[in-house]
Description:
Helix content: 55-70%
Strand order of the largest sheet: 1-2
Distance between the termini: 67 Å
Largest sheet: 2 strands, antiparallel
Low-confidence stretches: none
Amino acid sequence: MARKLTLAGGRKPKLRSTTKRDWTKEKERRFVSALADTCNVTRAAAEAGVSVSAVYKRRKENAAFRAAWLEAISVAYQRLELVLLDRALNGTEKLVKRRDGSDERMTEYSNQLGLTLLKMHRDTAVEADTEMQLPQIEELRERLINKFKRLKQRDIDESQ
Length: 160
């Protein structure tokens, strides 16, 4: 049976036998997937069966892993933002005990959460609301046409 080898770094790279501590594509996939689900490095490392320090070391040394990490955090952030937006708009159901011992369900809306989300997205909303006026569009069109003419003339000059 052939043993699996991995390339070990250092001053003189050499092949060595793989160990359970080595990173595999499966460990990396499990870590990134868990990170995207939880946005929690400690839980994602546990899910992948690696230590937190090994995860940070790999992020520092491996650009592809670092890019996957950033993508996972972005996915988790977007998911969290959607959940918070849903809570701000639809509220959360809360069980309230009355003095007589009975329970009542009520919907609670977080004003602070709503204000925070409004503040975060104010610029985007204003930008989406602002449409270009006809004079601006005409000016932009004229500038683009002039630029294309200059590029075309430059290509003609270079080919001669």
